[in-house]
Amino acid sequence: MKYALLAYTKGKTPGGRRPREMHPGVAAVLDRPNVSGWVRLQPAESATTVRLEPRRTLLTDGPFVDSKEFLAGLILIEAENLDGALAVAAELQELDITAAIEVRPVLEQELGGA
Amino acid sequence: MLEDVFRDQWGRVLATLVGILGDIELAEDAAQEAFALAAERWPRDGQPENPTGWLITTARNRAIDRIRRERTLVAKTEQLQRELRDPPEEPMDDTVTFPDERLELIFTCCHPALALDAQVALTLRTLGGLSTEEIARAFLVPVETMSKRLTRAKNKIRDANIPFAVPPEHALPERLDAALAVVYLIFNEGWGDGRVNLAAEALRLGRALLELMPDEVEAVGLMALMLLNDSRRDARFRGGELVLLDEQDRSLWDQTQIIEARQLLERALALHGAGPYVVQAAIADLHTQERRDWDRIALLYRRLEEQTGSPVVTVNRAVALAEIDGPAAALALLDDLDLDSYLYYHSTRADFLRRLGHSDEARAAYARALQLAGSETERRFLQSRLNDLGQPRADV
């Protein structure tokens, strides 16, 4: 079963053109065969939020949820069950670079065809 | 009584069905059908030789029939799909023995990924066989709220794929703690007043855990603890009023429960049990002695304090300390605690202050405790203490 690990970073992380250096512990996890995809995100200051107002779309500068911690990355993993996914999240959390990791089961298309 | 048989069988039957069907909701519906059928047939045709087997087989067959009828439901469980593709060679009958999977069910229901109130409700529903209405009544919430809570929990188990399994060795201590905490929470909910008999449910669950994991010493400790506390149930109230331990009529204490508890406690100690439940059981045992050994009680509270880091334990240690070194020393122990919303913190403080002759401060502390009292009996008890202190002096 697929799970998404949503990693929230604590406080500010410097953004910029050069990607931040990846923690070797994270890199090791991302290299595993049960990881099917991942993305890292620029800091929340770079976000633009799009909402639909009655007559027009409304843009606001900043993330949808305004908090000190922001969504910094997303990892897709394959795990046998929730415990398997939680174990990977706990391992990442122990690196002490994220404020928290939210584990969400991925809604998989049942009749996706091929 | 058929009802008693059903109560005893429900958790056992449901657990096996969850194992077969892979979905709690589906298993519940199937079990309900089988129990309804049993209620109709058994009084007429007599109880089958293997009631558990009969109930499981009947429920399982009903569930499969239903799924065959409603093909869309088939996708619900992979396991079942497999079974439907390869139907068992021999037709299932009620002589088949099914594995007892209650432990798997307990660990699913008490999974820390579920909110604690959901764990409690789900455990009572699935293992205790209580109806949603009964659980709602026990926790004083509207039936609809409880129903939503249960549905949400079952949905999360299904959608997030919370495993139906006994945790592996390395995760077991932590997960067992979570399960024991749920049982003890149920017990304590049922101890306060005479709503639905949750304490009896907790004792039943405790026994099941003990039967399923006889070597887990904290499960032994918890059972001893619950029995010791429950043994004083009839003595805790006189004419509807709360009676403190020292004033209780000891002849009302349930000796059978106390004897069983002491045997369990001995077993726990022989297994070198020294965890929080074993320590609490040992304390409860010391409290049932005619002459209370306050030094040992204080010592054990000290150990419990180190284990749990709970300020509530410190309040209890203060009570023991008051007996050893007097209320002034005990009061000093309470000073640093941050327990303003805890009733017993204030009632304990009030008692120390009263004994020290600080009536005005004692009155204030009782008044704060009164604000926090959850039940009428507690309120009346605190009010009578407050009345005993008399009116505040006006001649200041």
Structure summarized in a few sentences:
The complex is a heterodimer of chains A (114) and B (396). Chain A contains two helices and six strands.
Q: How would you describe what is shown here?
A:
- The complex is a heterodimer of chains A (114) and B (396).
- Chain A is an alpha+beta fold and 114 residues long.
- Chain A contains 2 helices and 6 strands; from the N terminus they run βαββββαβ.
- In chain A, the strands form 2 sheets. A 4-stranded antiparallel sheet of chain A has the order 2-5-1-6, with helices on one face. A two-stranded antiparallel ribbon of chain A has the order 3-4.
- In chain A, strand 3 and strand 4 form a beta hairpin.
- The two termini of chain A are 18 Å apart.
- Chain B is an all-alpha fold and 396 residues long.
- In chain B, 68% of the residues lie in helices and 1% in strands.
- Chain B has a two-stranded antiparallel ribbon with strand order 1-2.
- The longest helix of chain B is centred in the N-terminal third of the chain and has 22 residues.
- Chains A and B meet through helix 2 and strand 6 of A and loops of B.
User: What's the β-strand tally of chain A?
Assistant: 6
Task: Provide a count of the helices of chain B.
Answer: 19
- How is the main sheet of chain A built? 4 strands, antiparallel
Provide the structure class of chain A.
Answer: alpha+beta
Widest β-sheet, arrangement of strands of chain B: 1-2
Order of helices and strands of chain B: HHHHHHHHHHHEEHHHHHHHH
Cα end-to-end separation of chain B: 68 Å
Largest interface: A-B, 10 and 10 residues
Point out poorly predicted stretches of chain B.
87-91
Give the low-confidence spans of chain A: none
How much helicity do the residues of chain B have? 55-70%
Q: Helix/strand-derived class of chain B?
A: mainly alpha
Taking the sheet with the most strands of chain B, its summary is: 2 strands, antiparallel
Note the overall shape of chain B. Answer: elongated
Radius of gyration of chain A: 16 Å
